[in-house]
Design goal:
By secondary structure, the chain is α/β, with parallel strands linked by helices. It is about 60% helix and about 10% strand. It has an eight-stranded mixed beta barrel with strand order 8-9-11-12-13-14-15-16, surrounded by five helices. The chain binds ligand C2E and calcium ion (2 copies). It holds the Pfam family EAL.
Length: about 775
């Protein structure tokens, strides 16, 4: 409802109105004085309403301004007509003749209401036929009422000639036309202005009732100078003045605050006079006993048709509401669809541009949805999407928009709130931790998530499309990195720029000979259960001394038919089926057992580097578990280097810091793997307490050919010196690269130039080889796996 600012003028107006009503009812000073008060009062209140309408016309724009101008002129007519009548009563001391100029003035109002109706009819999108029929229903019902009340008597009364009677009928007919038109307007105005039109229409009805009551009393022989007709008219005048004031003071702007469908009361409004008309008609005809059955039958018919019609209306409305709802909902999941999503995002972005209210978008894409569809059927695919929707909604704070944009793509709008977008994104990720039960099977399904935040007010504003695009780019980068997790968009990020080889193969494409995936999965489960995965070790060579200063454990699957499979070939399958936890335990146990054979505290402290699956970092008991395994083999924590891939770090900077601190507090070395493959801002290096940096293969390989790559590697190595951490270059395949790295001061190198990954026995040999031997490379490294 509108807020009308309180104004002492209103109190004064209300007091004058009350005094006026009392005067008319009590008749102070006798009939003569009361008649004068009544006539003068009508002029004064008409002038007030005319002024208010003019004000509303000035404040409004377009059709609203024109409409109120018409109404202002209508009441100007009243001021003129009222003044002429008052002159006759006060000065001449007689009732003005009928018809007179005064009547032309009074009839300006119906014309003005007609203008308002035409303005609305020209603008409204409702069909002309419906408007005409609604108008007919209202007018016919009102006509019946007015006929029974006054018109019949007017035309049958012998005191009036036909012409006089017809002229006398002008007022009631004008009144009922006015009411019909304003009710029609009321049923079509937009929600935002409905209350104004409601007050206006009530005012028009009060005036019409005053007119008809005046005629009724005239027919009874007393000329109405005051009493009920005048009170009714003046009340109507004030209501219209109030409507005008509301229209002038209402805040302009989005008026579509209300629902798009018509409220029930307005839907019924055109029919409201019908029951009264039927009752009036029945009462009117009842005395004629001959036609009573016909009258009764007709009445029942009309009322039943009316009720039937109204039920159809109600049903239609319910259907409309459903359609309106579905136009914005994804039918499968019930989440917002793309239309609603973009609409809400547009709105959020507009707020962001105006007040700087933060807004972020999460873009989610399932990693292996196609596999579910292909292997378990579309029915399961649909069930999975529904289940995902059910998990997503509770994982974001209430009021945030969760949408399915199509296929296996979801998106979430994150608006201002106590939680950071990263926190929410993390929770969304956790919603996929548990397996999905599909067709009696546990299926693990993970999304790649991209997060993009709208820039602050001090930066150029961003469009809806651009923000969504950024979230998508980040999502693709997350997908390509293969580690899952959330990727935050950083300026300059582009699709296809990330390191060419994803850490664990691109999701969904497993480079395997054509073996049925289901069969392979069965075998893989057995291998994991039986602890039959093996570890290959690749030495890390000190570039200063040629000594082996570390070894990296790399998992292998010796397959009876397919040969030794590398992680790219089977890790995605493990990951998808929730077997990574078991593999991590296996790798840890085996690496600790193997390291126990070579690790000699104080004599040969060569730590084993272990790659951990990103989600295992969410496990708070991780340091404890690793510590226990090492202790079981008599190894100190320093015997292990934990490799954390850079992609995980970038996606979870805050949590990563906590994880790294925990691991280091427990005494393990921590290394950042694949450095340079993601969108490192470098600044995180300064903040994270790490021991080692592993330069990514794709970063090191082009060094010889590309001076820029070399310069970057050089400066990163210099940075590690400043930070006092060690650097390990991966994928060193030739002497020249090794030499260049040594010149830059790189601590250690790993790669086929020194040694391919090999199983323990071969490693044992290498560890026993003296440093100069390693530096004098052999042409073919032994037992590469
Ligand atoms: P990574 O951690 O970057 O491991 C280094 C990869 O580079 C290894 O591939 C290694 O064989 C390969 N490599 C070594 N020297 C050279 C070289 O001179 N040139 C080239 N082109 N490549 C070289 P691998 O063994 O196939 O492992 C692939 C990835 O699988 C690893 O990348 C690591 O992210 C992941 N991974 C391996 N073992 C495990 C494990 O036990 N657990 C987990 N969670 N991930 C593992
Ligand atoms: Ca690694
Ligand atoms: Ca690496």
């Amino acid at each position: 409802m509108p807020m009308i600012r309180w104004n002492p003028g209103y109190a004064a107006g209300a007091a004058v109105y009350l005094a006026f009503v009392c005067w008319l009812l009590v008749g102070w000073g006798g009939a003569q004085v009361t008649a004068i008060v009544s006539s003068v009062g009508l002029v004064a209140f008409s002038a007030l309403t005319c002024a208010c309408a003019a004000m509303a016309a000035r404040a409004g724009r377009g059709a609203i301004a024109i409409g109120w101008t018409a109404i202002a002129f209508g009441f100007l007519g009243w001021v003129v007509g009222g003044s002429i009548r008052a002159y006759h009563e006060v000065v001449v001391g007689a009732v003005p003749p009928f018809p007179s100029v005064a009547d032309i003035g009074f009839l300006a109002l119906p014309v003005a209401v007609g203008v308002v109706w035409m303005l609305r009819a020209a603008k409204g999108r409702l069909s002309v036929v419906r408007q005409l029929l609604d108008g007919t229903v209202i007018a016919a019902a009102l006509f019946l009422l007015v006929w029974v009340a006054v018109l019949q008597r007017l035309f049958t009364d012998h005191r009036f000639g036909t012409v006089h009677a017809a002229l006398g009928a002008v007022y009631p007919i004008a009144a009922l036309t006015m009411v019909t038109m304003s009710v029609l307007v009321l049923t079509t105005v937009p929600a935002g202005r409905r209350y104004i039109l409601g007050v206006f229409t009530t005012g028009i009805i009060a005036i019409a009732m005053g007119d008809i009551a005046a005629l009724y009393m005239q027919l009874d022989g007393d000329y109405p100078t005051g009493g009920f007709p005048m009170i009714s008219k003046v009340t109507g005048l004030l209501m219209i003045a109030a409507a005008a004031t509301m229209s002038a003071t209402v805040r302009r702007g989005r008026s579509a605050a209300g629902s798009r469908t018509m409220p029930t009361t307005l839907m019924w409004l055109p029919y409201a006079p019908m029951p009264f008309a039927v009752v009036a008609a029945v009462a009117h005809l009842w005395p004629d006993a001959d036609i009573r059955p016909v009258v009764l039958g007709a009445a029942v018919l009309v009322i039943a048709t009316l009720i039937r019609q109204l039920t159809v209306l109600v049903e239609n409305r319910r259907l409309l509401e459903q359609v309106a709802k579905h136009a914005f909902r994804d039918p499968l999941t019930g989440l917002a669809n793309r239309l609603l999503f973009t609409d809400r995002l547009d709105h959020a972005i507009a707020l962001q541009h105006r007040d700087g209210r933060p807004v972020a978008v999460l873009s989610l894409d399932l990693d292996d949805f196609k596999l579910v569809n292909d292997n378990l059927g579309h029915h399961s695919g649909d069930a999975l999407l529904r289940e995902i929707a059910d998990r997503l909604v509770p994982s974001v704070p209430p009021g945030h928009t969760v949408a399915r944009l199509g296929g296996d793509e979801f998106a979430i709008i994150i608006e201002a709130g106590p939680e950071t977008p990263e926190d929410i994104a993390g929770r969304v990720m956790c919603a996929f931790d548990e397996p999905f039960h599909l067709d009696g099977e546990d299926v693990y399904m993970h999304p790649s998530i991209g997060l993009a935040e709208a820039p602050g007010l001090d930066e150029p504003p961003i469009s809806t499309e651009e923000l969504l695009k950024r979230a998508d780019v980040a999502m693709y980068v997350a997908k390509r990195s293969g580690v899952g997790g959330v990727q935050v968009f950083v300026p300059g990020m582009q699709i296809g720029e990330v390191g060419t080889t994803p850490a664990w193969g691109d999701s969904g494409q497993i480079r395997l000979p054509p073996v049925s995936e289901i069969r392979l999965l069965g075998e893989l489960r057995r291998v994991v259960d039986g602890g039959d995965l093996r570890l290959a070790y690749q030495p890390q060579i000190s570039l200063a001394t040629g000594d082996i200063v570390g070894v990296e454990a790399l998992v292998r699957w010796p397959h009876p038919d397919l040969g030794v499979l590398t992680p790219h070939q089977f890790l995605p399958l493990l990951r998808r089926n929730g077997l990574m936890g078991a593999v991590t335990d296996l790798v840890l146990e085996q690496a600790a057992r193997d390291a126990a054979a070579w690790y000699r505290p104080g004599i040969r402290e060569v730590p084993v580097a272990i790659n951990l699956f990103a989600p295992s970092f969410n496990d708070a008991t991780l340091p404890e578990r690793i510590g226990a395994v090492l202790a079981g083999h008599g190894l100190p924590p320093a015997a292990v280097t934990i490799e954390i891939t850079e992609h995980y770090l970038l996606a979870n900077v805050r949590q990563a810091r906590h994880v790294i601190e925990q691991l280091r507090d427990a005494g393990f070395r921590v290394s950042i793997d694949d450095f340079g493959s993601g969108y490192a801002t470098m600044s995180y290096l300064r903040d994270l307490p790490i021991d080692e940096l592993k330069l990514d293969r794709n970063f090191v390989a082009p060094m010889l050919l590309n001076p820029r790559a070399a310069a970057i590697v050089h400066s990163v190595i210099k940075l590690t010196h400043t930070l006092g951490i060690t650097s390990v270059a991966e994928g060193v395949e030739d002497a020249a690269t090794a030499e260049l790295l040594r010149g830059y001061g790189c601590t250690a190198a790993q790669g086929s130039y020194f040694a391919e990954p090999s199983f323990t026995t071969a490693l044992q040999d290498k560890l026993d080889v003296t440093a100069p031997d390693i530096k004098e490379r052999r042409a073919a490294p032994p037992s590469a796996v």
